[in-house]
Write a structure and sequence with these properties.
With 497 residues, the protein is mostly helical. Among the domains are: 62 residues, no CATH class; 250 residues, no CATH class. It contains 22 helices and six strands. The strands form two sheets. The chain has a four-stranded antiparallel sheet. It has a two-stranded antiparallel sheet with strand order 1-6. The longest helix is centred in the middle third of the chain and has 28 residues. The N and C termini lie far apart (52 Å).
């Protein structure tokens, strides 16, 4: 038994893919009709298994389909994905996925997730170039001296800033760039890698869970529910402050214990290996932070500033973000006077170091493809929506929280979940006499809480970068998750009475 080890992230995802494949043989196939807006022809396309019908893009069409969303939400581009049409669920001919579908799902997933995979690989190349210049070593050494005795500020600052990005524009996939950069800083501050992982991942997780103005969850979900995104904003702000405070205090408590006695670390057996991995033992503490290295650090930092600005205000997505990091790497190579042949070799090695992470993202996307091809996601959604009929509003609200947590395993995309489920789930609020903003909030909180342990989300990719096992993450996160769940249920119940 002692020789048994917890499986790797890739193996966990393959096992989940096998489980989902079996589900496609057990769960009946079914599908909701969908409605998509065509900007070029100013029409709707109503899609069902039997047919595709062109309809005029008018408010009357939406009302006839029992969709209570203003037509302006479609014509303005706020809703840009097909939405589910209420009361149109139909059972379909079963489409069980066989061994061939299971075998090809990781490849299909890698192809489908090519955008984020290339972002991860280019970031790896950029970090390789940064390491070659020595700017990281000098910067970490400088920061360790500056924060000596006040290292806890690093925990508060990093978690809060990343949460701010999460709540405003959905900072999530982009955080993949932060782990190789910030983990060495936390190690140099005499914490363990779990502290750095927690600050980054939980900062992003709590921020997106309590999204306030995030266009990829709050705004698109509110639009799909037919309400203004400002409804429920006060409750989300309260949740953000309370949950972020609980999370920071939890991390600080663990970090203080590890700093006082490194053997208390949950990953103490990996201490030397992680320090070697992130180059802590090789950092030359006498390295001078020269003007050239300062300029390189500024260019590196500007990559993230430009990326955040582009995503927030210019409508950028993966192509533009990836290009920003590639251009940043080239500029740093020029400033650092790195020879062209050396640049190419180091950049390629840096990208290769994150190749396993890229595969994890692809395999996770493959699991989603299996569910879509097996037509089981809508069946699960249909039965979840009928399960809540006739409930007390306090019970209903908390049940919806768990339903959305469960659905997020099958639909890990926040925007995809919003447009598919909101037209179907939000009318349920009317039947129990609560505001539809409550459904929007339960969607966010349910997805956000399960995101912290959801193997089809980004946690396995993050753990692969830091070389920490999923079992050790569960050991760390479960007490906090239970605390956040209880807090969320209490605040949600108060909000509907």
């Amino acid at each position: 038994m002692k020789k048994l080890k917890f499986p790797t992230a890739q193996t966990i995802l393959i096992l989940i893919a096998v489980f989902v494949t079996v589900l496609t043989w057990i769960v009946p196939a079914g599908k909701y009709d969908s409605l998509a807006y065509n900007a070029t022809t100013n029409t709707f396309t109503k899609t069902s298994v039997e047919e595709h019908v062109e309809l005029p893009a008018t408010q009357e069409t939406l009302e006839n389909l029992n969709i209570k969303i203003p037509i302006q939400k479609f014509t303005s581009g706020d809703i840009y994905k097909p939405i589910g049409i209420p009361n149109t669920y139909k059972e379909q001919e079963s489409k069980p996925q066989g061994l061939a579908a299971l075998a090809t799902s990781p490849i299909k997933g890698i192809i489908a997730a090519a955008d984020i995979i290339f972002l991860i690989l280019i970031i790896g190349g950029l970090i390789g170039i940064m390491n070659l210049t020595g700017a990281f070593d000098a910067g970490i050494s400088w920061m360790a001296k500056t924060l000596k005795g006040r290292e806890y500020i690093l925990i508060i600052l990093v978690t809060t800033l990343i949460a701010a990005g999460g709540t405003t524009f959905g900072l999530a996939e982009e955080t993949m760039a932060f782990y190789p950069i910030l983990i060495p800083v936390f190690l140099a501050a005499k914490y363990d890698a779990m502290v750095g992982l927690a600050c980054i991942f939980l900062g992003s997780g709590i921020g997106t869970m309590c999204s306030t103005i995030n266009p990829f969850s709050t705004i698109i979900a509110s639009d799909a529910a037919g309400i203004a995104w400002t409804l429920g904003l006060n409750n989300r702000l309260i949740m953000l402050v309370v949950c972020l405070a609980i999370t920071i205090l939890y991390i600080l408590r663990y970090a203080k214990r590890v700093k006082a006695d490194p053997s208390k670390s949950l990953i103490y057996d990996q201490k030397e290996a992680l320090e070697k991995l992130f180059g802590i033992n090789t950092i030359d503490k006498t390295t001078e932070f020269t003007n050239r290295l300062r300029l390189i650090t500024v260019v590196f930092s500007l990559c993230f500033v430009v990326m955040i600005y582009g995503v927030s205000f210019l409508g950028w997505w993966f192509v533009e973000m990836t290009t920003t990091f590639l251009v940043g790497a080239i500029l740093i190579g020029i400033i650092g006077k790195i020879k062209e042949t050396v640049f190419v070799e180091v950049f390629a090695k840096g990208a290769a170091s994150l190749l396993s992470v890229a595969f994890i993202v692809g395999i996770a996307r493959g699991v989603t493809i299996l569910m879509e091809d097996g037509l089981i996601s809508d069946t699960i959604l249909y039965h979840a929506s009928t399960f809540t009929e006739g409930m007390n509003k306090g019970v209903f609200t908390n049940v919806m929280l768990f339903i959305y947590g469960g659905l997020s395993f099958f639909m890990p995309s926040s925007s995809g979940m919003a447009v598919l489920t909101m037209p179907i789930m939000s009318p349920l609020a009317d039947t129990v006499n609560i505001g539809r903003e409550t459904i929007v909030n339960t969607y966010q909180y349910g997805m956000g809480l399960f995101y912290l342990i959801n193997p089809t989300s980004l946690i396995l990719a993050a753990l692969a970068i830091v070389k920490i096992g999923f079992n050790k993450w569960l050991h760390f996160i479960m007490p906090l998750l239970i605390l956040l769940l209880i807090t969320t249920m209490i605040l949600l119940t108060i909000s509907v009475y």
